[in-house]
Write a structure and sequence with these properties.
With about 160 residues, the chain is mainly α. Among the domains are: about 35 residues; about 60 residues. About 75% of the residues lie in helices and about 0% in strands. About 0% of the residues are buried.
Length: about 160
């Protein structure tokens, strides 16, 4: 058994050693705190999140890379999104297609608005406006929608 000398507090070297010991103890205490914190965090995380691991051979992986090549997100995120969409029976709509659909819905709402205005005008005048005019307007709107779709399809592909 070794005898330890009690440091002389008046000496500079003993103060340095004491400060070093204190910082080492503080460092160890911090490491233990972080270790325990991370352990508790992982336990709580595992209660709410589940991790799955999948293994693909080279050919399967290459086909996945080819399938998801058009996106800038990670393949794991795309695979997760695709799987959840399939399970929930919800289609995946690419961003460009969604934008086209939004414009299409806008045009349809305009058609509905125009039809309502025609009906309101007809009720206001207490007479029926010629149905030929209404159908001509609807046909013109239908043509506009078709031209819009054809124009977008040829520009985007």
């Amino acid at each position: 058994m070794q005898n330890f000398k009690i440091p002389n507090l008046k000496s500079d070297t003993s103060l340095k050693v004491t400060n070093t010991l204190k910082s080492c103890l503080a460092s160890e205490k911090r490491k233990n705190y972080l270790h325990n914190y991370q352990k508790l965090y992982r336990q709580e995380y595992k209660k709410h999140k589940k991790r799955l691991s999948l293994t693909f051979d080279t050919e399967e992986y290459q086909s996945l890379l080819f399938y998801f090549s058009g996106s800038d997100t990670k393949i794991t995120q795309q695979l997760k999104h695709t799987l959840i969409s399939h399970v929930n029976n919800k289609p995946i709509i690419p961003k460009a297609t969604q934008e086209k659909l939004n414009e299409f819905v806008f045009l349809i709402r305009n058609i509905a608005n125009n039809t309502n205005q025609i009906a309101k005008q007809s009720n206001f005048l207490k007479s029926v406006i010629s149905s030929k005019n209404v159908f001509k307007q609807l046909h013109a709107l239908e043509q506009s929608v078709k031209e819009f779709i054809e124009r977008k399809a040829t520009h985007d592909y």
